[in-house]
Amino acid sequence: MNILVINCGSSSLKFQLIDSETEKVSAKGLCERIAIEGSRLVYTPAGGEKMIFEAPMADHTIAIQMVLDALTNDSYGVVKELSDIDAVGHRIVHGGELFSEATVITDEVIEAIKACSDLAPLHNPANLIGIEACRKLMPTTPMVAVFDTAFHQTMPEEAYLYGIPYRYYEKYKIRRYGFHGTSHNYVSGRAAAMLGKDLADLKVIVCHLGNGASVSAVKNGKCVDTSMGLTPLEGLIMGTRSGDLDPAILEFIAKKENLDMDQLMNILNKESGVLGLSDQFSSDFRDLEEGYLQGKDNCTRTMKAFCYRVAKYVGAYVAAMNGVDAICFTAGLGENSGVIRGMICEYLTYLGFTLDQEKNSMRGKEIDITTPDSKTKILVIPTNEELAIARETAKLV
Ligand code: ADP
């Protein structure tokens, strides 16, 4: 089956067309600056050159129409006609407590996704626009919603409840949801395959370290805890997001600097994390790593604080599962930075492993980076959220 995977943001749209039998990508790309001046489609057919089409895209329907035109184009397209696209898989950020797995999209499902928009006001409405646009252009093609939160719905109450009045959970569903679920699910599955074991017999910790970053504890194939919370702001120190902090800091800064809640949230989401900690040097870990290796103070404190926080979460999740068999690193820096993996692992050698330094310097491929006698395995596993969405979609249609 040809599965079109769509990840729709408010002004951008990423896509991949995946053959679900061979699991190969036939074409991929993105639309940028939708409904903004200077919009363009970047399109790469498998084995071909990257192409850039600059054209106005007044809305997402026009953007998706351009994608479909490219995919079916006589010279650089990868399918003959629209009906060769068998299904569409949509990435949806928040499924609240309503969705614990992927689901075929119906009118009722759309209403339920709308009902979760309160919990992800920046993301769910944009995801819905993508669904509506695809339905308009491909009214008979089956579509599936795959949720970032779904994998984490197996968390027990003690892991998802906050220490605030219970009525807020009852009234507003304030609780830990967790994100990057598609990635945590995919990577924990690959870990079992790499170890040649059944996931149902394993305790795995997945560190998804990209611009957005989260850690999860996967016991016997089920998520039992994760570092992101009601929103993706909690947990690790991220590119520009603060992660965990004392909530009283908000009031303190608000009074000192005369700021309102919107301004504070903007600071925590966009000006904090490693960007803020490095004194606005960079949110990009490549820059920070370079600065750290050159001995720059701001980069050193930032890298150390980032790695320490990851190690602290890993320790917490070893406790949550009463043990661990494998710790997996994935996403941008998890897959690529041996320096960061090494710094995190220095805190964790009590778990009984030795890093193989040569293997740890490799990047972007599935590899066990410990020596053979290591009791706990440290695995590097490139994530593939698009493939995971395509698999879920193929399974359901
Ligand atoms: P997201 O999908 O959340 O935007 P990614 O998973 O693409 O993020 O990760 C982006 C991050 O990964 C950036 O901070 C980038 O600097 C970092 N990264 C990518 N390659 C490397 C590398 N070789 N060394 C260190 N960091 C890297």
TL;DR of this structure?
The chain is of the alpha/beta class.
Protein model, in words:
The protein has 397 residues and is an alpha/beta fold. The protein folds into 2 domains: 2-147, Nucleotidyltransferase, domain 5 (2-Layer Sandwich); 198-380, Nucleotidyltransferase, domain 5, CATH 3.30.420.40. The protein contains 15 helices and 14 strands. The N and C termini lie close together (10 Å). Adenosine-5'-diphosphate binds next to helix 10 and helix 12.
What are the main properties of this structure?
397 residues, alpha/beta, Nucleotidyltransferase, domain 5, eight-stranded mixed β-sheet, six-stranded mixed β-sheet, 15 helices, 38% helix, binds adenosine-5'-diphosphate
**First and last CA, distance:** 10 Å
Radius of gyration (CA) equals 21 Å
* Number of separate strands: 14
**How are helices and strands ordered from N to C?**
EEEEEHEEHHEHHHEEEHHHHHEHHHEEH
Across the major sheet, the strand order is: 5-4-3-2-1-6-8-7
Strand content: 15-25%
Low-confidence stretches: none
Mean pLDDT: 96
Question: Helices and strands in order, then pairings?
Answer:
Elements: E1 2-8, E2 13-19, E3 24-32, E4 40-45, E5 51-54, H1 60-71, E6 87-92, E7 103-104, H2 107-115, H3 124-137, E8 143-147, H4 157-160, H5 166-172, H6 181-195, E9 203-209, E10 213-219, E11 222-226, H7 248-257, H8 261-270, H9 273-277, H10 285-293, H11 297-321, E12 326-330, H12 331-336, H13 338-345, H14 357-360, E13 367-368, E14 377-380, H15 385-396
Helix pairs in contact: 1-3, 10-11, 11-13
Bound molecules: adenosine-5'-diphosphate.
Adenosine-5'-diphosphate binds at residues 210-212, 239, 284-286, 289, 331-333, 336-337.
